[in-house]
């Protein structure tokens, strides 16, 4: 299944736009309860205005909220970014730390966010257990754990450490494009022969094919049709 995911999504990567660790950290915080697409619409203007941790720490709250308004929960997110900026300035000289134990002490940063930042900004392998990842690895029988930290450790024992970040991207891509929560495209899934949950969604290829999303759709359907 891992090899198949590698073939389906060879170029999978973070779908949030960023140019440095601070921008990625901010983008991940903003992505809560909204889509990466929505965050990417907001961040160009935000990043042009707030370039350093100190900029967030000293932001005018009302002004910052306006930048974030369309992401949902914008008041809470403004609070989070201001607190995050202050903590980075006070504890880490305004720089984003490169260790998980340090990252998770920051306001609004849990293991999921920390692993995204480590894997994508610093090339430190990490498994990102979001809702897609957890759902899929349970469907596939890789683990029965529900707790994200336990899921992270269970899957980490199955996959070489150097591949944790790329695996995370590929599983999340598959969850967004094929293995949907309510109606997975089972009949058009290249993993179907190895999937213990095959049949959760429609099994006819033509029906399932209509459920496949994303720019890789033609590639996915070609691999699925090949068997």
UniProtKB/TrEMBL annotation:
<comment type="similarity">
    <text>Belongs to the Nth/MutY family.</text>
</comment>
<feature type="binding site">
    <location>
        <position position="186"/>
    </location>
    <ligand>
        <name>[4Fe-4S] cluster</name>
    </ligand>
</feature>
<dbReference type="InterPro" id="IPR000445">
    <property type="entry name" value="HhH_motif"/>
</dbReference>
<dbReference type="Pfam" id="PF00633">
    <property type="entry name" value="HHH"/>
</dbReference>
<feature type="binding site">
    <location>
        <position position="179"/>
    </location>
    <ligand>
        <name>[4Fe-4S] cluster</name>
    </ligand>
</feature>
<dbReference type="InterPro" id="IPR003265">
    <property type="entry name" value="HhH-GPD_domain"/>
</dbReference>
<keyword id="KW-0227">DNA damage</keyword>
<comment type="function">
    <text>DNA repair enzyme that has both DNA N-glycosylase activity and AP-lyase activity. The DNA N-glycosylase activity releases various damaged pyrimidines from DNA by cleaving the N-glycosidic bond, leaving an AP (apurinic/apyrimidinic) site. The AP-lyase activity cleaves the phosphodiester bond 3' to the AP site by a beta-elimination, leaving a 3'-terminal unsaturated sugar and a product with a terminal 5'-phosphate.</text>
</comment>
<feature type="domain" description="HhH-GPD">
    <location>
        <begin position="30"/>
        <end position="177"/>
    </location>
</feature>
<dbReference type="GO" id="GO:0006285">
    <property type="term" value="P:base-excision repair, AP site formation"/>
</dbReference>
<feature type="binding site">
    <location>
        <position position="189"/>
    </location>
    <ligand>
        <name>[4Fe-4S] cluster</name>
    </ligand>
</feature>
<dbReference type="GO" id="GO:0003677">
    <property type="term" value="F:DNA binding"/>
</dbReference>
<keyword id="KW-0411">Iron-sulfur</keyword>
<dbReference type="GO" id="GO:0019104">
    <property type="term" value="F:DNA N-glycosylase activity"/>
</dbReference>
<dbReference type="InterPro" id="IPR004036">
    <property type="entry name" value="Endonuclease-III-like_CS2"/>
</dbReference>
<dbReference type="GO" id="GO:0051539">
    <property type="term" value="F:4 iron, 4 sulfur cluster binding"/>
</dbReference>
<dbReference type="InterPro" id="IPR023170">
    <property type="entry name" value="HhH_base_excis_C"/>
</dbReference>
<keyword id="KW-0378">Hydrolase</keyword>
<dbReference type="InterPro" id="IPR003651">
    <property type="entry name" value="Endonuclease3_FeS-loop_motif"/>
</dbReference>
<keyword id="KW-0238">DNA-binding</keyword>
<dbReference type="GO" id="GO:0046872">
    <property type="term" value="F:metal ion binding"/>
</dbReference>
<keyword id="KW-0479">Metal-binding</keyword>
<dbReference type="Pfam" id="PF00730">
    <property type="entry name" value="HhH-GPD"/>
</dbReference>
<dbReference type="Pfam" id="PF10576">
    <property type="entry name" value="EndIII_4Fe-2S"/>
</dbReference>
<keyword id="KW-0408">Iron</keyword>
<keyword id="KW-0326">Glycosidase</keyword>
<keyword id="KW-0234">DNA repair</keyword>
<dbReference type="GO" id="GO:0140078">
    <property type="term" value="F:class I DNA-(apurinic or apyrimidinic site) endonuclease activity"/>
</dbReference>
<dbReference type="InterPro" id="IPR004035">
    <property type="entry name" value="Endouclease-III_FeS-bd_BS"/>
</dbReference>
<protein>
    <recommendedName>
        <fullName>Endonuclease III</fullName>
        <ecNumber>4.2.99.18</ecNumber>
    </recommendedName>
</protein>
<dbReference type="InterPro" id="IPR011257">
    <property type="entry name" value="DNA_glycosylase"/>
</dbReference>
<keyword id="KW-0004">4Fe-4S</keyword>
<feature type="binding site">
    <location>
        <position position="195"/>
    </location>
    <ligand>
        <name>[4Fe-4S] cluster</name>
    </ligand>
</feature>
<keyword id="KW-0456">Lyase</keyword>
<dbReference type="InterPro" id="IPR005759">
    <property type="entry name" value="Nth"/>
</dbReference>
């Amino acid at each position: 299944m891992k090899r198949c995911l590698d073939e389906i999504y060879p170029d999978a990567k973070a779908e949030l736009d960023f140019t440095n660790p601070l921008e990625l950290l901010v983008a991940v915080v903003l992505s809560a309860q909204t889509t990466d697409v929505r965050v990417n619409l907001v961040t160009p203007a935000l990043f042009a205005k707030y370039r350093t941790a100190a900029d967030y720490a000293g932001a005018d709250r009302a002004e910052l909220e306006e930048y974030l308004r369309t992401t949902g929960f914008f008041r809470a997110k403004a609070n989070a970014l201001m607190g995050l900026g202050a903590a980075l300035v006070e504890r880490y000289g305004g720089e984003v730390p490169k260790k998980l134990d340090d990252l998770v002490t920051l306001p609004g940063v849990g293991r999921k966010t920390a692993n995204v930042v480590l894997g994508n900004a610093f090339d430190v392998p990490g498994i990102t257990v979001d809702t897609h990842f957890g759902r899929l690895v349970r469907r596939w029988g890789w683990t029965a754990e529900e707790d994200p930290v336990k899921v992270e450790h269970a899957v980490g024992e199955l996959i070489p450490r150097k591949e944790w970040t790329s695996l995370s991207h590929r599983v999340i891509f598959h969850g967004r494009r094929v293995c949907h929560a309510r109606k997975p495209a089972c009949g058009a899934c290249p993993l179907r022969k190895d999937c213990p949950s095959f049949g959760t969604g429609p099994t006819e290829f033509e029906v399932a094919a209509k459920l496949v999303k994303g720019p890789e759709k033609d590639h996915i359907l070609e691999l699925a049709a090949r068997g």
